Sequence to fold (1014 residues):
Amino acid sequence: MSHNKDGGGEKRLVSTRTMEIAVALILLLVAGIVIADSLRLGVRWREIEGPGAGYFPFYIGVLLAISSVVVLIRAAFDKSGTATNFVSKPAFRQVLAVLVPLIVYVAALSVIGIYIASAVYIALFMWYFGGYSPLKGAAIGAAISLSLFLMFEIWFLVPLPKGPVEEFFGF
Amino acid sequence: MEELSALWGGFIVVLNPFNLALMIVGILLGVVIGVLPGLGGANGVAILLPLTFSMPPTSAIIMLSCIYWGALFGGAITSILFNIPGEPWSVATTFDGHPMAQQGKADEALTAAFTSSFVGALVAVIVITFLAPVVAKFALKFGPAELFAVQFLTFASFIGMGKGSPFKTLASMTLGFALASVGLDTVTGQLRMTFGTAELLTGFKFLTAVIGLFGIGEILASMETGLSFAGTHARLRLNAVIETWKKLPAYWATSIRSCIIGCWMGITPGGATPASFMSYGIAKRFSKNGERFGKGELEGVVAPETAAHAAGTSALLPMLTLGIPGSPTAAVLLGGLLIWGLQPGPLLFVEQKDFVWGLIASMYLGNLAGLVIVLTCVPLFAAILRIPFSIVAPAILVICAVGAYTVNNAMFDVWMMVMFGIVGYVFNKLGYPLPPLVLALVLGDMAESSFRQSMLLSQGSLTIFWSNELVGGIMTLGALLLSWPVIAWVLDKFREAKPA
Amino acid sequence: MELHRLRTLGSTLPGIALGVAAALAAFTSPSAAQGWQPTRPVTFVIPAGTGGGADQMARFIQGIVTKHNLMNQPMVVVNKAGGAGLEGFLDMKGTPRDPHKLVITLSNLFTTPLATGTPFSWKDLTPVAMLALDQFVFWVNAESPYKSAQDYINAIKSGADHQYKMGGTGAKQEDQIITAAIERLTGGKKMTYVPFAGGGAVAVQLVGKHVDSTVNNPIEAVAQWKAGALRPLCIFDSKRSTYTAKVTETMAWSDIPTCKESGVDIEYQMLRGIFMAGGATPDQVAYYVGLFTRVMETPDWRQFMEQGAFNQTVMTGPQYRQWIESADKLHYDLMKEANFLAN
Fold:
């Protein structure tokens, strides 16, 4: 996503106003989807079923549309938001530094299993942000993963996603 | 005083070393379950249920109900420390509990949460002890129309909470309702807004959304400001419990209100989660300090915790006397009763005196034991905040992922959690309030189906909501609360207009 | 006439449970020792929420297996209730040939895919065993004036359209199917069907007089019956229940007349059966048949069956498969008739 058109300064990534408009547009889109599907389901009283399945969501969709349009119009005409910064570049870099690995971690969960992925994730996080030695990170990551494993798989018998390593040990 | 002698008999049954040991084990397990999001009291009880078959029923139910108490206590811990509600009913505890932790007052917030939980439970047990038959009859009066009225009241008491733009509040709430309506419609059996995907069949899960919006959102936000949780460097105070206890009596009015709300919502069966929201909303509205709610007010922790625990405890009453569980955990306990050869229902109190009074006695003792255990651990819990951020943060993210997965055993929910995390981060920065979204998500389904069931019963006539004193009274109260901001505004204008 | 077909379901069922179970035990016990064995915890999927009939039975089975040490691996129970059970079924469909997964079914095995048009059928699973058939009983509030099913039907006939309210579990599932069948006997007068989330809640709504009647399973309503709050009118089976022990002061399950006796010619029973994921080998199926046979031999199971007045019909192998096929066809016809099919 690029919301740079309003941002003048070097450090600024995106203005609050741009963000307001973008979010309002997304909400409007959601409202549109809700209303469209409600109309498909039927919004009227039916013989056996009472109010149709779309009755309630339809009005919810309408309310959501109205409120997001109001927010949109306010943001569009109120220029004061242009000056304020939604997020600065260094701050956003920090956020991404957590968010992107988190997404990679979640993607890895279903492939290599939650325990290995978690240990690796914790170790890398500690190394990158905390400046711990990789060995220390690996030790703490492994310890947390192992306690999770004992707690969920052995103790509470709640199966979590497992990968080839757990498979190898017969789980 | 027939009840007192029966209760005394119950205490005699419970008070032996074996049962007391089970009680402590149960509480500790429960706290662990309560702390881990996704692993609810219902999971814990269900998983451990089979282990209890070799015990006498009374010992088994003592252990299981203690897991339940432990889970009720434990839910508050992560809410306060990390803004991650361990259980649905501790969402409202985050509103003031987490800000308190950020101000370095985690120990105070924890003490207040545990103590109010205990008070709520105690009042509920007293109600169960002396009013069980009356209360069971009262629960029978609740048909769909009455349930809708209660849900309406919950909303009415909570709405207009945030400052900020009313349209953003409305957008946030309607988004919550829209998300709640995804999945199979319970009234017509039609699929709504699933667009042919198997993952959306089950809809958006409340806990997944909450873990993402609050937990992940919080971590993303704290990454921006630097690598730490605020409040980390609080001094470790060993006398925090005593200090907090000195402050608590001042909130007696809120306590009493919350107990009433909690007991009522547990019995009807509205549930602990709506009870905690309603109690928070009403406390905010009627408290002298209402303005400061959301910024770390002790009263904002007392109100939801008292109500949640009162509701969680009194939810066992309809389970015992009517065979309808007031909470998922109560539902699992119900299954347990059947396996032990006990038939819950109106006759349980007559046919199984030993068991019932043993259970009630264990409620008193279990909660007391729970309180002592968790209070001694307050400094320990507060000390968790002193662990470096770069260790705690990834551990929390991992636990969040585990929690989101266990809600439904689905990877899809973990992805949803990440998405809700981003939404929470953006909404927070733009001033969209999150509580209305969460409340709509938890109540949306229930409110919609009660409404449509009522409409079916009345064949489309809205008069059903004023058809008797009970439902009419609740609806009117709700309408008054809803229009309270307008009334207050008019009164204010009136006063201003009058020349002083 | 559809009612006739409703009846065929009941009449094809040999109700001799114990004999079959004994025969199975003789057949499977030795082979189970040498054949396939589970090598990791077995997940038992419940396509329904906590506290319902299927949930109670599955957790009860888990309890028996653990208590009597019937399996060398733990049994883990998981509720996948979303989308009226579709979540659980699609999960089973998603892991074919996984021998460490079982699912307990109710009628939603047939009704939910039909009502929602979701691509799932029981053929995606491997049938293991039918444990029992769950009964349906026609209940009214004990304070109502109706002493028999015929009384009540007559009242509906002479009342206004939609005047009488039937409470039930879920939409377009077994309870509503039975309601649709009853409506064919009421001279064109419709009932108002009000769906609730669970069987226990339905019974309580009837006690609180928010609805006029229900078709609860016995186990969901027995406590209220015992306490004198509900009155059973008739049982939707071809013959009376075989349980003769007194439940209330005056009545046993066997004292409830069949609906046919009371002039309401409707029969319906619900499958409580076990399936594995698709493509399971005969060895694996045999292991679980043996396991459930041993479960059904325990005294705990017998007591559970009596408490819930289950029809103890046990089936496995081709006979079970045949039963499922006919039940599937029956549900299709019933739902088509009632206009419950997804377009």
